[in-house]
Prior knowledge:
The chain is of the alpha+beta class. Helices cover 34% and strands 19% of the residues. The protein starts with 14 loop residues before the first strand and ends with a helix.
Amino acid sequence: MLRPPACPSCKTVMTAHSLPSVAGGQVEIDLCFSCRGLWFDPMENLKLSPAAVVELFKVLHAHRHEGVTALAQKLACPRCNRVLVQGFDVVKSGRYITQRCPQRHGRFSTFSAFMIEKGFVRQLTALEIDDMAQRLGVINCSNCGAPVDLRKDQACPHCRSALSLLDPQAVERALVGYESAARASEGVKLPQLADALVMLERDRVQAACEAKTHQTGRLTWPDGRAQGAVDLWAAGLSLVWKVLK
């Protein structure tokens, strides 16, 4: 078995996770929580069972507040160090970026791109983007982690990804399509995007009050993290995990 590779973006050693395979047994994939990316050796992404995807949600949720580091402009294959070739694939839930080794050693996928591939993400409408621009201002790109000022851009200026949201309703539809985890969502009233935005706004106001109380002049989240761009990926992941668990 190959040792965990270095992340194609930040070069730190990735974390290996064993997940159920469609053929039985386990398949080992490698994750970088700092860059929110996965490295798949050849065909590994096709070997994951539906149960593996649910388990992956659990892992990502546990590390949802780590990283948010913008990806490097050029990504290198951890096996041969060749520059990965960027391309695009299109599925029903949208277009996503692919990064493949020219020597076919594997592919690098951001968490967001993987979730689009599996149908768990939906792209935001122009009206939703306009609403968030007024209420939130700046968000982190779910694909590459770069800040996106919604008052100026309707796509990420760093990687040109369309703005998307990990949406509980999209997850439910996809899981039903995979004939998996139906029992986890049965009878649950799934939150809407507006509910997620209200929660984000509530946290923002609470953080502002706490910052004023401590007279630091610095806006922080209730758990002490610095307030910067809003992370819709982490917020959506939290909402989805409440449904799945």
